[in-house]
Amino acid sequence: MIEFKNVSFKYEDGGEVLQNLNLTIGDGEVVLLCGESGCGKSTIVRTINALIPNYYPGTLDGKVFVNGLDTSETELYKIAEQVASVFQNPKTQFYNVESTEEMVFGLENRGITREEMKKRLTATVGKFGMENLTGRDLFEMSGGEKQKVACACADTSGTPIVVLDEPSSNLDIYSIGELAAIIAKWKEEGKTVVVAEHRLYYMLPLADRVLYMKDGVIELDCKPEELIGLGKERISMMGLRSTDIREIPVTAVYEPEGPGDYEYLDIAPEKDAGKKIKEEASLLIKDFRYTYKGSHESSLWIDELLLPGKSIICIVGDNGAGKSTFARTLCGLDKRAKGILCYKGKSLKRKDRLKNTFLVMQDVAHELFTDEVAEELSSCIEDHGEEHEQRVTELLERLGLSGKEKRHPQSLSGGEKQRVAIGCAILAERDILVFDEPTSGLDYRRMTAFASIVQKLKKSGKTIFIITHDPELIAMCCDELVRIGNGRVLENGKMTTDYYRRWLGEALLNK
Amino acid sequence: MNEAIVKNRRLHLDPRTKILILAVIATLEMINVSIEFTIAVGIVPFVLYLADGRISGAIKYALMFGLAVAAHFLRSDLQINMVLNMVIVLLGGFVLKLFPAFACGEYFLKSTSVSEAMAAFSAMRIGRKMLIPLSVMFRFFPTINRERAAIHDAAAMRGITIGRKRFWKNPGQAFEYRVIPLMISVANIGNDLSAAALSRGLDNPVRHTTYTDVKIGRTDIIVVLIIALFLTIVAFVSTTI
């Protein structure tokens, strides 16, 4: 049993995130914690696994009891015997390099015998059907595989309680299904499971109880059916994502700008297709190939792909299907990658593409180099003209970043960092913007804000590529959907409700 | 594939043996016996690289070390600019005296898994206070490499990689640009990693068990003996002749 008694918590460097919280979670309950970013749901998870107050500095008032243990007076390792945790970022929750070692790490720490470790490991691996994931290099695994290993770690530890903090953020639709199956097994075994999540659709059928949080307070404590019963509009108003991804209306409307903007052109079968494209607004990808060192098979192989320019093109596919390789090839980042991009009547080779494209990475922090927002932006201007300061100020305003000129870019929120990177792409005068998983881990409001930004970018004449797993984002802004599998283009075409449903149905089944 | 987990390595040493070799090499290369002895010390990590199946690492190391040796022998024969001469002698000395230890350290980190290292350290009765930071260090090297690659991509897009015009306009700043995001992401990852490790009982005072077996075997003893014998002979021969 987990009990919160008059709990308030304030992070050392921020505002209050939990306000006088009283909550009891019974044994064997599966609880979904939802709410906008910053509502305090992750903080609840951290108070249950006792990283608050033992690791994250701040002031905790009130008492939290986990199976009778007072978390503020119990050693962390004793709580670890009661609570196992699965975190959001697969990159930073592993301590070992090899997957099997990782799965027994918690047991080694507890001094459990080798025989017992082997027994538990075999049981977990068999239960989750993950024989193919033992003895592997964790760094070489896809996001879905890593999250499965993280769940296996929680399982071998044999704790009665498991907490998960936004576990689906980096997963494709099929892997989310696998995660749901694991949680269902835990529910069957009578474990108490607490999941903080933005994506509601996969948790609602599993949850016994939904807690909706706002500003550190539980505003709603209900059954999943009651939440669904509130209706789509109300749920969006609450800042929550869709409760059923199959039912999202496809709202993206492609508005042609000028004549023949979105027309497949007749391309003669001859080789020099670059000349054949008379229409400025189309993109032609030719002979994109990528082969890993020492591999015989190309992990990216696209002979020809014609795409509408000045539009939003979403690239979908499973974890490991070759989407990131495609993005790196498109941006000219990899010397091993081959291929040409024909655009505006020019054939762009790899080095030309480096100057015409801009990749907004999933981890945006990697591309913010300076110590001031304004400096960051002005450093992106290739040729410093006289009026460059003015351009920076104007752009900051348009991106909603006024007043933050002097802030350190790394101190901004995730969405703000993303906008600084977008600003950089605009100032560097890149026509093609590529986003890698821009909305993973974003709540409804932030996701719609992102969708409106890319729509504005499109209107200003940019071509947008979005690599994504996020069906809601796709339904909201995608013009052209490209499905990639095994490094090949499986299907591409204009976004319609039918296309969306068909793709989603197949993605859920991993076809 | 990470070298750390390649199961069928040609030579598998106990982590404690590797630490002993590292310590011995680091000490011996500081002692001025003779240039022959210094070279002999430098050969040890080269052989270790080869035995670990890391051919490209061995070649790179051999090239660097070989150049330094060449510079050592040619320094008095070459009539070149004084300053340049000094730089070459200094750099050469640096490589001769420090690279063997660096290379042994790299070999140790790359060829040892986290679990193996933890098992060895606890067998050496290293306290938990030391064990945790040591194991974090092990976990960190591959991570830093990944982060560096991502930041390199970002820099390439902004035209601040070596070989681009913008880099040379202000190389100092371009360097800073690369280091700042790396430091920040490494610090963040460190925080998250520690939290994850603590939530899995890393601070448990119980004597930790290990899934991997570590044992000082016959190979370890033979390797240590060969190295000791080789270095003693070289030291003896080179000073008596």
Summarize the structure.
The complex is a heterodimer of chains A (511) and B (241). Chain A has 511 residues and is an alpha/beta fold.
Features:
heterodimer; A: 511 residues; 6-stranded mixed beta sheet; 33% helix; 24% strand; B: 241 residues; mainly alpha; 2 domains; 9 helices; flat
Query: Order of SSEs of chain B, N→C?
Result: HHHHHHHHH
How many strand elements of chain B? 0
What's the gyration radius of chain B in Å? 21 Å
Mean pLDDT of chain A: 87
Give the fraction of residues assigned to helices of chain B. over 70%
Q: How does the major sheet of chain B shape up?
A: none
The CA-CA distance between the termini of chain A, in Å, is 41 Å
**Number of domains in the coordinates of chain B?**
2
Overview of the structural elements:
The complex is a heterodimer of chains A (511) and B (241). Chain A has 511 residues and is of the alpha/beta class. Chain A contains 18 helices and 20 strands. In chain A, the strands form four sheets. In chain A, strands 6-7-8-3-9-10 form a six-stranded mixed beta sheet, with helices on both faces. In chain A, helix 4 runs parallel beside helix 6. Chain A starts with a strand and ends with a helix. The relative contact order of chain A is 0.10. Residues 254-278 of chain A have low confidence and may be disordered. Chain B is mostly helical. Chain B has two domains: 3-113 and 216-240, no CATH class; 126-199, no CATH class. Chain B has nine helices and no strands. Residues 1-8 of chain B have low confidence and may be disordered. Classes of the chains: A alpha/beta (511), B mainly alpha (241). Chains A and B meet through helix 3, strand 6, helix 4 and strand 16 of A and helix 5, helix 6 and helix 8 of B.
